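Example 3.2
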Amino acid sequence: MLNTQTFGADVPGPPIVIAHGLFGSGRNWGGIARRLAETRRVVTVDMRNHASSPWIGPHRYPEMAEDLAEVIAGHGGQADVIGHSMGGKAAMVLALRHPQAVRRLVVADIAPVDYGHTQQGMIDAMRSVDLSAVETRGDADAQLAGAVAEAGVRAFLLQSLDVKAREWRLNLDQLEADMPAILGFPDMSEAFEGPVLMLSGAASDYVRTEHRDAIRALFPAARFAKIPGAGHWLHAEKPREFEAAVTAFLSAGAAVQA
């Protein structure tokens, strides 16, 4: 079972389950989860091989989807699901394989397609840090700066560093081994007929016009929206706008269910 944290535990009805992206954790979503929990129960997860969840293989989308299905089964059997990047792909496979478990789906800045880039550089950068010389997070940041120029990216990666234990809370070996699967998307013959919001950053190129046929083949009811001024990390760059878009979409579903 994945490690989870629940917010607004006493709120009745299906929860919102949030699946983070590669190198992330449920902790990254704590602020958004707390605000959404003012009206909904929210469950954030650590995906396998991340943070406090089991380090197991393979790290592929069918297995990640089953992890999410198990979490939802333990929280009433149905949820609204938000997934970002890698978590968005896992959420899409979940909806395709277990449509009864997903009431409404928000996919944040990712499409069900293969991508040509790689995140191997981030793995190499984390491995390059001499953890024996790290006394503070600033020490690690200084080392990372040689390989990762963007301060925001370094700050994100460093959220997965346990300074006291001097170890990364990421299964870098497994993530490296399954990087082709993480960048890809499994062949799926199913379709999810339920409501789907494909929410992307206007400054991101992860969800392109040419991806829409592939999206609609799997998710015929998909709607598309963009957050101005946001890139791939739209929930971190524009959290209030992200929350507003998600709340409007999920509240429409709540009204239908009432």
